[in-house]
Amino acid sequence: MEPLDQRRLFMKSGFYTKEFRAAKSDQVKGLLQPPFEKPADPSALQIDLPKPDPKVIVKPELFACMTDRRSRRKFTGKPLSLEELSFLLWATQGVREVIPGRTYRTVPSAGSRHPYETYIAAAKVTGLEPGIYHYLALSHKLVQVSVQDDVAARMADISGGVKWMLDAAAVFVWAATAYRSEWRYHREAARVMLIDVGHICQNLYLAAEAIGCGTCAIGAYKQVEADRLFGLDGCEEYVVYYAPVGRV
User: Fold this and answer.
1) How far apart are CA 172 and CA 85, in angstroms?
2) Domain membership flag for residue 186
3) Distance CA 166, CA 121 (A)
4) Domain containing 56 — which CATH number?
5) What does the pLDDT look like over 195-220, one tens digit per residue?
6) Residues 58, 211: contact at Cβ < 8 Å?
7) Boundaries of domain holding 123
């Protein structure tokens, strides 16, 4: 199908209409923008992450990482170090600069909105109790959401019984905070948010390859159970995508 035909089909569907284009976002209306990240529970344990260090990289050649990158479903079961986890978190959502109204990170995002919160289901990470953690990108810290010794089994269950996940060291989970994008893009936010999470996951693939690990993105899961496991309301914030990481 030619691009012009695709556009006509899109417009004919009733989605791309004059009313749709005329709808005003909250940014245009002059409303205050939402915060850059989800606030942490002040009573929760916060863990300072090591500063991202390129010394954890074992494959520094970008060409080799891109050539060797693939979805990996076999892991050794060995743990990640906290330094390696820190590097992967920085590579996927690390904040490079904060200016009025936006943050610049290690991944692109439409309008610099960065609508995703990163959660870690840590099963085998040195220095962390098994459980659920929330990444605070602005301060490069982890917040302990819950301690769960069976977190690997629970992640496998909500994924429909995917056994190879049991050998992963940690699962990176990306939850959308939709209003962060809707504030600027209104109804078009749903489209650009899906593009954004693809940027994030591709960085994880390449960064994992660089440290001798692997990942395989997962989009099939039990939505209600996944949201509940990470303490999300399923409306204002909800799981969109996740990827187990382990040594290969």
Assistant:
1) 10
2) yes
3) 12
4) 3.40.109.10
5) 999 999 999 999 999 999 999 999 99
6) yes
7) 23-35+43-247
